[in-house]
Amino acid sequence: MKMFANGPTEDKDKLLSMVKFINAHSNDGRHMIAVAAASRVLYAVSSNGDVEPANKLIEAIGPNQRGDTLVKWFLEFGPFKINDNKDGLAFGTGKIKQFQNKMDTPENKRDFAQSLVLNPFWVWQPPKSPFKPAVLEQLLAQAISKVEKQLKSTDISDEDRKQIDSFGIDEAKATLKAIRLKRALAESSTAAIN
């Protein structure tokens, strides 16, 4: 710490020493934070719902991207839920059995704790949502293409061909063209502004 006491420096040897110091201590710091986060999960389970230590760690990390990731990590790996009445976490009573089973023997508790420390919140990635937004332009183009393929197909009987709903196909094509034109104009005006 003495190397930082005199403020900024231009001395290369001191700069390199500072980097070594920071690397050594940041690794220690990261490990301490990982153990602290894992400990709060274990404590919430063993205390049957005391979430104060977890909320204090969230406060200490701060309202930034890491803090948000810690909250998501707690929700994924601990018996927590979002507190509807105030900031922070609340005890998720519906999840407690799942976590008690992970801590029912000393070996299970050790393995669970170790898995939490080895998968710290800053490394962990939340599960990706399977939701994919529908894009009207793509859906309309696919529908038009499907109808046109069916109309052109020679494998369809005349009776089946009569059942293909091609009413409004020209209007659908005109709508698709208008959507694409509007999008192109919006994108070109945005590009011109930037």
In short:
This protein is mainly alpha-helical and 194 residues long.
What does this structure look like?
The protein is elongated, with a radius of gyration of 29 Å. A hairpin with a 6-residue loop joins strand 1 (80-82) and strand 2 (89-91). The chain has nine helices and two strands, in the order ααααββααααα. By secondary structure, the chain is mainly alpha-helical. The chain starts with a helix and ends with a helix. Helix 7 (136-152) packs antiparallel against helix 9 (169-193). The chain has helices at 2-5, 12-46, 52-61, 65-77, 96-102, 106-118, 136-152, 158-163, 169-193, and strands at residues 80-82, 89-91. The model has no long low-confidence stretch (mean pLDDT 84). It has two domains: 18-118; 136-193, no CATH class. The protein is 67% helix and 3% strand. A two-stranded antiparallel ribbon has the order 1-2.
